Amino acid sequence: MALKPGPTRLAFVFGKESRILQPVAPILVAFSAILLTTVVLLAVDPFIDTEALAFIYLLPVIVMAMHYGSTVGVLTSFASALAAGYFCFPPKFSFFISDPLNVAELGFFLLLAVIASKAVAVVTKDDRVTRRPKWPLIGWWRRQRRSPEHLAR
Question: Which pTM value belongs to this model?
Fold first, then answer.
């Protein structure tokens, strides 16, 4: 007799309670967004120069940073830079970029994408970016400054 699919069984099948897919799901969504952006760019390539549209890869970076946080946003920015270098800059379909100006543009894109993902994470109050680091030495120094022995000197 086969088991009837109950709510917990269906949730496991669709990945809501899967411990394996849970940490990987944001990365898969990010790569899927980059793939969708690439398909759109390759579809408009005969009509518009895709080198001018390379900054469209910022959209997946910003969306992933808003939805999943700064870590996935930074990962998406690196993957987007690789995709832009491979699909947008001549010679196309190669990681070699012949023009130094295009290399500088790709570097600027990567810098802008990382800054944008961090800024979006701060605006959306991502706790990994906005929390203050706990530095034991600074806390110790502040406590020593406020101690009665320090005030007596």
Answer: 0.69
Residue carrying the six token digits 């549209």: 53
| CB count in 10 Å sphere of residue 26 | 18
- Which spans in 2-147 are helix H? 7-13, 21-44, 58-68, 70-87, 100-123, 127-130, 136-146
Residue 123 has pLDDT above 50, yes or no: yes
**List of residues 6+ apart from 74 with CB closer than 8 A:** 114, 117, 118
How far is residue 5's CA from residue 139's CA, in Å, rounded to a whole number? 54
**Residue 36's pLDDT band (cuts 50, 70, 90):** very high
Torsion of CA 130, 134, 140, 141, to 10 degrees: -40
Q: What three-state secondary structure class fits 88?
A: coil
| pLDDT in the model for residue 90 | 87
3-state secondary structure of 14: coil
* Residue 137: strand, helix, or coil: helix
pLDDT digits (tens, 9 = 90+) for 60-78: 999 998 888 888 989 999 9
CA distance 63 to 32: 12
Question: Angle at the Cα of 92 (from 88 to 94), degrees rounded to 5?
Answer: 110
The span from the CA of 41 to the CA of 128, in Å, is 33
